[in-house]
Specification:
The structure holds two protein chains of two kinds.
Chain A lengths: L6 H8 L9 E2 L6 H6 L3 H5 L2 H15 L4 E3 L5 H5 L3 E3 L7 E4 L21 H15 L5 E6 L1 H8 L2 H10 L1 H25 L2 E5 L10 H20 L6 E3 L18 E3 L5 H8 L4 E6 L1 H6 L2 H15 L6 E5 L9 H14 L5
Parallel strand pairs in A: 1-10, 2-5, 5-6, 6-7, 7-8, 8-9, 9-10
Antiparallel strand pairs in A: 3-4
Helix pairs in contact in A: 4-6, 6-9, 7-9, 9-10, 13-14
Chain B lengths: L8 E3 H8 L4 H6 L15 H6 L9 E3 L2 H11 L1 H10 L3 E6 L5 H5 L5 E4 L7 H4 L4 H8 L11 H8 L8 E7 L3 H12 L4 E6 L14 E3 L5 E3 L1 H21 L4 H27 L7 H9 L8 H21 L9 E6 L6 H8 L2 E7 L3 H4 L8 H9 L8 H13 L5 E7 L3 H13 L5 E6 L7 H14 L1
Parallel strand pairs in B: 3-4, 3-5, 5-6, 9-10, 9-11, 11-12
Antiparallel strand pairs in B: 1-2, 7-8
The chains are: A alpha/beta, B alpha/beta.
Chain lengths: ~350, ~475
C-alpha cells in the first residue's frame, strides 16, 4: 500500500488518539545518518548543517517518519564545562568531567546559542525544519537531568554518591534540569520537538530505587515544563527498564520508548496510559540478515500495532552507526508492509 | 497573575520569552469543551510551529494574553474536531454559504459545525505545498483557487474527521469551490446541496416583482426569501434525521447566541477601526471576523474569548495606546488574503486596516429575532456580498471611502480564483475616488521583494 499521509500528518494523528494510515516508523537513526551520507562522524556532530543534511539524506533514502537531531548524551554537560574528545570517526568521549575541576556552585548554566556544541544542535534543527518541517517531525534529543548529572561527574563517583551523598546528587540533578529547560526553550523556538533521553537512568545502570529517587522526579519536572507548551513528549530510556515499567507513567510522558523489555509486558502495563515506541533489538540490526529481520519485525509489529493508546515501530536504541543499510531498509519496509490501520 | 505589557506586535521568539511569565494556573484556566485532559489550549505560537505551522516563525503577533488565547484556540481547531468526534459529538461540514448552515446545526445537541473550506489557509500557515500537490494529484488543475487544498484534506482525513453530514452550497457561490465540492462528492462523500440564488437587482427587463432591501443596502426580489427558507428547511430536516430531534425554539436560541457573537465582533471592529491608534493588529482582526462563521468549533468558548479580546481592546483605546504608529495610513482591505503574512507586511510598511470587505457580510450582520427563524436566516443571508453584482460590492466599499476614513484600498486577487480574476479589475476600475492597489496572492512562500516594493510605494504615495 502507498502512504496516504506525510510523516507530520501521521504523527499528528497519533498524538491526538487517532489512528493514522499506518503506524509511525521511527527507528532511532541518529549518528547512523553520517554513514548514510558518507560523512566522518566528527564532521557530523560538530557542524549543524552537516548533521541536518545527513539526516535529510537518510530520510530521503529510508523514508521513515522522523528526523533525529542527536549524536550523544554529553552535549549539555559539555556546554556546562565537561571536556570531551572528538575522535575523527567515533562519537565524542568524556575526558574530564567538570565536577573534577569545579564545585557544583561554580558551574554556570549554559547559553544554548553560545556554549559547547549546543549551537550545532540548534543549527541542525533550524536547517532541518526549514527544509522539511512541514512534512516530518524534527525530534530533538534532550539528555535528561540524571544522565547529564552523571556526565558532569566521574560516573563511578557519581554512582557512589547516589548512595552516600544524596543531597549533592540532588543539587547536581537540579542544576542539570535547569540547563535542560534552558536548552528546551531554544529547541522549541527552532522548531524541534524535544524527546527526553535518559540512558543512564536505565535499570541496566542504576537500581529502581535510585531511578525513583533521582531520575524520575527530574524527568517528571522536565515533562511538566514541556507540557506547559502542550507538546507531546517522548521519553526514551535505553537498556532494560522492566523493573521500572510501572514507574514510567509517573513521568507523565506521553510516549514511552522502550529497549530491552518484553513488548507484551510493556503493552500490558503501559498501553492504556501511554503510547508505546519500540523496540527492535539493534544488535540484530547490525549483525542479522534482512530475511531474519523481516520475520522478527513482522512479529513485533503484529503484536504491538493495536496497543490501546497507539504504537510507533522503532528500534530499542540507536541504529548502530555501521548497521548495513539493507538491514535498516528491511526493518522499515517490513513495517510498511504490516503496519497498516487504514485498509 | 499575568499582566499584559505595553501593546506591541512581537515575534514568535518574543512570545516564547513572554510565555515564561504565564502561570500554570492561567494555562489550565482556558479549555475547550470544558475538558481538563486534552482541552487546554493556551500555548505560545512556538507550539504550533513545532507541529508544522512554519509561517509562525515569520509572523508578528499581538502581545496580549487575549491574543495568545485567540491563537491557541484557533490553531487547536483541528485537534478539537477530532476530540469532538471522540467524545460523541457529531461533526457537521458546512461549505460555501459562509455563515448560515452552522446557525442551524448549532440548534441541535452535540453538533459541531465547521467549514472545510477554511483549509485554504493551511498551505500558507504551513508554508507547504503538501495539500496543493495532493489536490493536483487528485485532478484539480493548478490554476484553480487555493480552496483546492480542501479536496486534499478530505482525501487525507488528517485535518478534520470524516463529517457525519455535509452541506455544500452551489449557485451564486464561489465557482472554484463548487467544482472542488463536486470532486469531494466523487470521492464517495454524500453531499447535501443547497442552492444560493443570484441576488438580482430590479431591472426593466425583469418581470415586475416585489423587491426589498437587506440591512446592508442590497436590493433583491422578495421571493428569494421564500426560496431560501425552503432550502434551510431541507437542512433542518436532514439534521433532524441525523440527530432524531429538532426543536425550533433551539433554533431561536442558536440565532440569539450567534447574534451575541456578531454584535460583539461588530463592537470590536468599531473600537479597533475608529480608535486614534490601532489597538489590535489586522491579522488577529481577520481571525476574529472569520470566527463569525462557526465559532471555531466551540462557540461558547469562542464567545468567552471575544469578550476578553474586547476588554483588552477597550482598555487600550481608553489609554490611547496601540500596536501601530499613530500616523499609519488608513486602508480598506477587499477580499480576504489567503496568505496571512501579507497583513503583517502592510502594517509593517506603515498601513493600517480600518475597513474590511472579506466577502462574509452575511455572517457579520445580525439575524432578526422574534420572527420565524428560517425567514430570519434567509433575510440575513441576503446581505452576502459575493452573491450579487460587482457594482453592488463596489458601492458598499465606496461608502467607506466616501466617509473619508479610507486613504487607499488594497484588493487581493487569488491565483486561479475565477471570480477574483474578473472582479478585482472591475472594482479597481469603478472605485474612482481612491487609489487602489490590486495584489495577486502568490502560492505559499511566494511573496517577493517586488511585491513588498509595490506595497511600500503605494503607502508612500498615499502618505
Amino acid at each position: 500500500m502507498n502512504d496516504m499521509l506525510t510523516s507530520r500528518e501521521r504523527f499528528g494523528l497519533l498524538v491526538i488518539d487517532e489512528q493514522p494510515d499506518r503506524c509511525n516508523i521511527m527507528p532511532l537513526i541518529t549518528s547512523h545518518a553520517a554513514t548514510v551520507k558518507g560523512m566522518k562522524l566528527r564532521d557530523y556532530y560538530t557542524n549543524g548543517e552537516n548533521m541536518a543534511r545527513a539526516q535529510i539524506a537518510t530520510v530521503e533514502k529510508y523514508e521513515h517518519d522522523a528526523i533525529s537531531i542527536f549524536s550523544e548524551v554529553g552535549i549539555i554537560a559539555e556546554a556546562m564545562g565537561s571536556e570531551f574528545e572528538y575522535p575523527e570517526n567515533d562519537l565524542p568521549i568524556l575526558r574530564t568531567p567538570v565536577l573534577e575541576k569545579k564545585d557544583i556552585e561554580e558551574i554556570k548554566l549554559p547559553s544554548p546559542r553560545a556554549d559547547g556544541r549546543l549551537p550545532v544542535y540548534l543549527e541542525a534543527i533550524e536547517y532541518a525544519y526549514a527544509a522539511l518541517g512541514d512534512r516530518i517531525p524534527i525530534l530533538a534529543y534532550i539528555p535528561a537531568p540524571f544522565t547529564t548529572a552523571m556526565m558532569l561527574s566521574d560516573p563511578n563517583k557519581f554512582l557512589i554518591q547516589t548512595i552516600r551523598e544524596p543531597s549533592r546528587v540532588e543539587s547536581i540533578v537540579d542544576r542539570s534540569l535547569a540547563a535542560a529547560i534552558e536548552l528546551c526553550y531554544h529547541v522549541i523556538d527552532a522548531g524541534g520537538l524535544p524527546i527526553i533521553v535518559d540512558p543512564l537512568a536505565s535499570s541496566s545502570v542504576v537500581s529502581p530505587k535510585t531511578y525513583r529517587q533521582y531520575a524520575l522526579p527530574s524527568e517528571r519536572k522536565l515533562v511538566d515544563f514541556l507540557h506547559r507548551y502542550d507538546l507531546d513528549i517522548i521519553l526514551h530510556i535505553c537498556g532494560d527498564t522492566s523493573p521500572i515499567l510501572d514507574l514510567l507513567p509517573q513521568t507523565r510522558a506521553d510516549l514511552i520508548s522502550i529497549d530491552q523489555v518484553n513488548m507484551q509486558q510493556a503493552i500490558d502495563k503501559l498501553s492504556s496510559r501511554v503510547r508505546i515506541i519500540g523496540n527492535y533489538d539493534t544488535s540484530r540490526l547490525a549483525f542479522s540478515t534482512p530475511e531474519d529481520i523481516e520475520a522478527e519485525v513482522r512479529y513485533m509489529v503484529e503484536g504491538a500495532l493495536h496497543a490501546k493508546k497507539g504504537y510507533i515501530a522503532a528500534t530499542g536504541c540507536e541504529v548502530p552507526i555501521k548497521a548495513p543499510e539493507k538491514n535498516v531498509v528491511a526493518f522499515i519496509d517490513t513495517v510498511k508492509e504490516v503496519g497498516w490501520y487504514w485498509v | 497573575m499575568y499582566q499584559d505589557l505595553t501593546p506591541e506586535k512581537i515575534s514568535l521568539r518574543e512570545w516564547s520569552r513572554q510565555f515564561r511569565m504565564v502561570g500554570d494556573s492561567e494555562i489550565r484556566q482556558f479549555k475547550y469543551y470544558n475538558n481538563d485532559e486534552w482541552g487546554i489550549y493556551l500555548s505560545p505560537p512556538a507550539t504550533f510551529m513545532v507541529y508544522g505551522s512554519r509561517q509562525l516563525k515569520k509572523l508578528k503577533f499581538d502581545n496580549s494574553l487575549a491574543a495568545l488565547r485567540l491563537w491557541g484556540f484557533t490553531f487547536n481547531e483541528s485537534e478539537r474536531l477530532f476530540r469532538a468526534r471522540q467524545s460523541g459529538k457529531r461533526i457537521i461540514a458546512a461549505m460555501g454559504d459562509l455563515g448560515t448552515v452552522p446557525v442551524i446545526a448549532l440548534a441541535f445537541p452535540d453538533c459541531i459545525p465547521f467549514y472545510p473550506d477554511c483549509t485554504w489557509w493551511t498551505p500558507f500557515f504551513n508554508e507547504s505545498t503538501v495539500l496543493l500537490d495532493k489536490a493536483s494529484e487528485l485532478g484539480t488543475p493548478e490554476a484553480s483557487c487555493f480552496v483546492r487544498s480542501t479536496l486534499a484534506a478530505f482525501h487525507k482525513m488528517a485535518y478534520f474527521p470524516k463529517p457525519d453530514i455535509l452541506f455544500a452550497s452551489t449557485g451564486a457561490s464561489c465557482d472554484d469551490y463548487s467544482c472542488i465540492m463536486q470532486m469531494v462528492e466523487d470521492m464517495g462523500y454524500e453531499l447535501n446541496w443547497l442552492e444560493i440564488p443570484f441576488r438580482r437587482q430590479r431591472r426593466s427587463l425583469h418581470v415586475p416583482e416585489e423587491h426589498t432591501v437587506a440591512e446592508s443596502g442590497f436590493e433583491y426580489p422578495k421571493r428569494f426569501e421564500t426560496y431560501l427558507v425552503d432550502e434551510y428547511k431541507r437542512v433542518w430536516q436532514k439534521m433532524e434525521a441525523l440527530t432524531g430531534t429538532g426543536d425550533l425554539e433551539d433554533l431561536n436560541a442558536s440565532i440569539e447566541k450567534n447574534n451575541r457573537i456578531r454584535r460583539l465582533v461588530n463592537e470590536i471592529k468599531d473600537l479597533t477601526q475608529t480608535a486614534a491608534v490601532a489597538p489590535f493588529p489586522a491579522l488577529e482582526m481577520m481571525i476574529i471576523e472569520f470566527g463569525n462563521l462557526y465559532g471555531y468549533a466551540d462557540i461558547d468558548e469562542w464567545l468567552d474569548i471575544l469578550k476578553m479580546i474586547k476588554q483588552t481592546i477597550a482598555d487600550r483605546v481608553e489609554k490611547g495606546i496601540g500596536v501601530l504608529a499613530s500616523d499609519a495610513v488608513p486602508l480598506a482591505w477587499v477580499t480576504p488574503t489567503a496568505d496571512p503574512l501579507l497583513l503583517n507586511i502592510v502594517e509593517d510598511l506603515g498601513g493600517r486596516i480600518v475597513a474590511t470587505e472579506y466577502v462574509i457580510n452575511q455572517a457579520l450582520t445580525t439575524i432578526e429575532e422574534g420572527i420565524e427563524p428560517f425567514h430570519a436566516l434567509a433575510r440575513s443571508f441576503m446581505n452576502a456580498s459575493l452573491i450579487g453584482s460587482t457594482e453592488e460590492r463596489v458601492r458598499q466599499i465606496a461608502r467607506g471611502v466616501d466617509s473619508g476614513k479610507i486613504a487607499g484600498v488594497i484588493i487581493t486577487n487569488m491565483l486561479g480564483c475565477s471570480h477574483c480574476a474578473m472582479e478585482t479589475r472591475l472594482i479597481e476600475e469603478k472605485l474612482k475616488n481612491v487609489p487602489v492597489l490590486a495584489i495577486d496572492i502568490p502560492a505559499p512562500l511566494g511573496i517577493t521583494a517586488q511585491l513588498r516594493t509595490r506595497i511600500t510605494a503605494f503607502i508612500e504615495m498615499l502618505r
